[in-house]
């Protein structure tokens, strides 16, 4: 679902303007070492849960909201694991965007929660063992790996 503020921006700048948007990624690991993933309806690819922050929304609250909206799973946000930027993308509707991604390590608030598809952004959701991930981009595997390392400080690409 496209947030209202992005739709308003698009009306002003059109689809060809590359929008720089704040995004959050929730890598949710359960007590069994499984990760919660979604197969996105737009491209059919498996990814951690992610979305765009609403104006003024705190990042940790935003990632918890996104995970709950997409899977029904309530999470505890434990730490910021990484700050990354996505490559530029052209969405199916023609809109161009690039995302500043705040990647958070999360855990289920209630162990044993069963995820379910809760909106039209996903066609499947589920828990996967870290050594048996479904097909996904190498970039998504890297984001999961950054959380799995469990480093006390957030990772970011060093300046050149």
From TrEMBL:
Residue ranges of coiled coil: none
Organism: Streptomyces goshikiensis
Record-linked CDD domains: NUDIX_Hydrolase
Matches recorded under SUPFAM superfamilies: Nudix
Keyword Hydrolase: yes
Nudix hydrolase domain span: 19-150
UniProt keyword Amino-acid biosynthesis, yes or no: no
UniProt cofactor(s): Mg(2+)
Record keywords, A-Z: Hydrolase
UniProt cross-references to InterPro entries, sorted A to Z: NUDIX_hydrolase-like_dom_sf (IPR015797), NUDIX_hydrolase_CS (IPR020084), NUDIX_hydrolase_dom (IPR000086)
Protein known as: NUDIX domain-containing protein
